[in-house]
Amino acid sequence: MPLTDNQHRFGMQLAQMSRGWRAELDRRLAGLNLSQARWLVLLHLARFDEAPTQRELAQSVGVEGPTLTRLIDTLVEQGLVLRKADPKDRRANQILLCPPAKPLIDQIETIANALRLELFTGVDEADLEVCMRVHAKILDNLEKS
Hints:
Layout: H1 5-29, H2 36-46, H3 54-61, H4 65-77, E1 81-86, E2 89-97, H5 101-119, H6 125-144
Antiparallel strand pairs: 1-2
C-alpha cells in the first residue's frame, strides 16, 4: 500500500514540530546556563519517584551510557546531582538531585509550561485528544516493528 500525501506530510510535520518546540524551549532556557542535554537530564531525573540508577536514567533520557556519564560529570561539577552507590547493586550508581537543582528545575518547568500554553493556544481539547490517540497508535506500531 503506497503512502498517502497526508501520511508523508504527517511525519515531516511531526519532526519539524519536535525540532522547533525543543529549539524554542532551548532558546528560552539559555539564561539558565544549561545545555539542552543537561536540562533534559534534570527534568527526567526530577520525574523519578526514587533515585534511578545511571542505566535507568539513560534509558529514560534516550541516550547511551557514555554520553550520560559525561553529562552527569558536568552536573556533579555544577553541584546539581550526586552519584551514590546503589545499595541493591554495588556495580551501579544511583543519581540523586542536590538541593540547588530544585529551584532550577522549578524555573525550567515554569518556562516550559509558559511555552506549552502559548503553543496550545487555539487548539481544541477534543482535537488534542484525537491527535494523542493517533500518536499512541503510531507508537504502538513502532513497538511492534
